[in-house]
Design goal:
Length: 238
């Protein structure tokens, strides 16, 4: 099982459980996240969701090898990449237990709040892989100058700098991370559900007026880029 789902006193915990691939966003993982969040979002007993990774990595991003396989990249990427997280009807807290890199960084940014282990690191690392960084994800959280800095340079920031930049709200020791995140999530889940849902509706409304269109543009461009790369690989192997 590549995605684990638990329900703990009004809090849904979704764990990326593919540590042998550093919790990469394979098709199976993305589908599992989508199904988990759809189920939790419909559950009247759930007032908050925690998203984390198994092992010592939060998420290493899209599985590039898998993306080069045959198939329609548009259908692979669009509805199954970040939209299930970005559009979840209840708040999502990312418990960033280790590196959140490339698409894993974008995944964390699409959550409503991030709390990091002191071993966490963040960065797009996209240039070397030929995948553009997600400015939409960065801009949804960060000031324009900071978002552009991290996209242009692709540099990796440690947990303490991530806190200064506003990437994360708190930094906890590795052994304290889930305890602290569950404390926050329990407080959110204990609030009246109509208030929680209205709060999240306002987040989504604000998002729809800003980064949603940019996120769709990025996904379309990436699908075209992958399709072109597949053709080049096929031609080279002919």
């Amino acid at each position: 099982m590549s995605v684990k789902v638990e329900r703990r006193d009004g809090v849904g915990v979704v764990t990326l459980a593919l540590p042998e691939k550093r919790n990469a966003l394979t098709r199976e993982v993305r589908t599992g996240v989508q199904e988990a969040l759809e189920s939790l979002g419909r559950d009247d007993e759930i007032g908050c969701v925690v998203l984390t990774g198994e092992g010592d990595t939060f998420c290493s991003g899209l599985d590039r090898g898998e993306l080069m396989q045959a198939g329609d990249p548009s259908s692979d990427l669009g509805p199954l990449t970040y939209a299930p997280v970005a559009e979840c009807p209840v708040p999502i807290i990312a418990a960033v237990n280790g590196p959140a890199l490339a698409g894993g960084f974008a995944l964390a940014l699409h959550c409503d709040m991030r709390v990091a282990s002191d071993s966490a690191r963040f960065g797009f690392l996209a240039h070397g892989k030929g995948i553009p960084p997600s400015y939409a994800a960065a801009r949804s959280v960060l000031a324009p100058g900071t978002a552009r800095d991290l996209c242009v340079t692709g540099r990796v920031v440690e947990a303490d700098e991530a806190l200064r930049l506003g990437v994360v709200s708190e930094v906890a020791g590795p052994g304290d991370l889930m305890t602290r995140v569950m404390e926050i999530a329990a407080e959110v889940a204990a609030s009246p559900r109509p208030i929680v849902l209205e709060m999240k509706r306002r987040f989504l409304s604000d998002q729809a007026q800003g980064v949603d269109a940019l996120m769709r543009e990025e996904e379309t461009f990436l699908a075209k880029l992958i399709a072109r790369a597949r053709k080049m690989m096929a031609a080279a192997g002919a």
